[in-house]
Amino acid sequence: MKSGKLIVLTGPSGVGKGTLVRSLLTRHPELHLSVSVTTRSPREGEIEGQHYYFVDRSRFEQMLEAEELAEWAEFAGNLYGTPYFALQQGIEEGEFILLEIELEGARQIRNKFPEAVRIFILPPSWEELERRLRSRGLDSESAIARRLLRAKAEIEAAGEFDFQVINDDLEVALTGLESVLFVNC
Ligand code: ADP
Ligand code: 5GP
């Protein structure tokens, strides 16, 4: 049977992970996106079961206790985790599954699924990362400050990853990702 793959995309908040993932899914409908569970409130336009499964803290803790999460982390005051159910089955069925998660979760995935391909998305500059976080217009100033603080530590860990892709020009970054996904793995 054809075996699938886990592809982990990590990078600081605002670097463009969501934008890249949406473009990849449009261009390659055969790719699957793992939908995470989070205690964060939905942003405008976010849809339950498509962007996230939105749960409260006690439900998240129940899932943790029942070992239903392949990885999890706290990020900017909220909990995020990847449910196991779609992963295991998807890999066995030969699917390419994208996980768009932060650094701590990516490290847990490396331990549990050593064969996962891990890609770090870098911004072209610190100034541009800050500009993108603000231009998104979805987070409060305090949330942006928390995300920037975390971004520094995350970027320092980029060297731990199998591949680094700079998201300067979107098309160039997409081509870089496609070459990792479809040529190198
Ligand atoms: P993340 O998912 O990593 O938090 P987003 O995908 O939400 O980041 O992108 C953050 C902001 O940056 C959005 O406003 C998005 O349109 C913009 N953006 C993403 N990629 C690029 C790019 N290559 N050039 C310019 N702006 C970008
Ligand atoms: P956001 O609140 O902007 O949607 O996500 C904040 C951060 O949490 C992003 O870096 C995103 O990649 C990460 N994230 C989303 N889902 C998960 C998950 O299931 N696990 C982990 N560890 N991080 C996640």
Automatic annotation (TrEMBL):
Residues that hold ATP according to the record: 11-18
Organism of this sequence: Tychonema bourrellyi FEM_GT703
Entry GO CC: cytosol
Function as written in the Swiss-Prot or TrEMBL entry: Essential for recycling GMP and indirectly, cGMP.
Residue stretches making up the Guanylate kinase-like domain: 4-182
Claim: Transferase is one of the keywords in the record: yes
Enzyme category, top tier: transferase
Protein name in UniProt: Guanylate kinase
Molecular functions (GO terms): ATP binding; GMP kinase activity
Name of the coding gene: gmk
Compartment(s) where it occurs, according to its Swiss-Prot or TrEMBL record: Cytoplasm
SMART domains: GuKc
Domain of life assignment: Bacteria
Primary localisation category: cytoplasm
Family, as annotated: Belongs to the guanylate kinase family.
Keywords, ordered alphabetically: ATP-binding, Cytoplasm, Kinase, Nucleotide-binding, Transferase
EC numbers for this chain: 2.7.4.8
PANTHER family assigned: GUANYLATE KINASE, GUANYLATE KINASE-RELATED
Catalytic activity of the protein: GMP + ATP = GDP + ADP
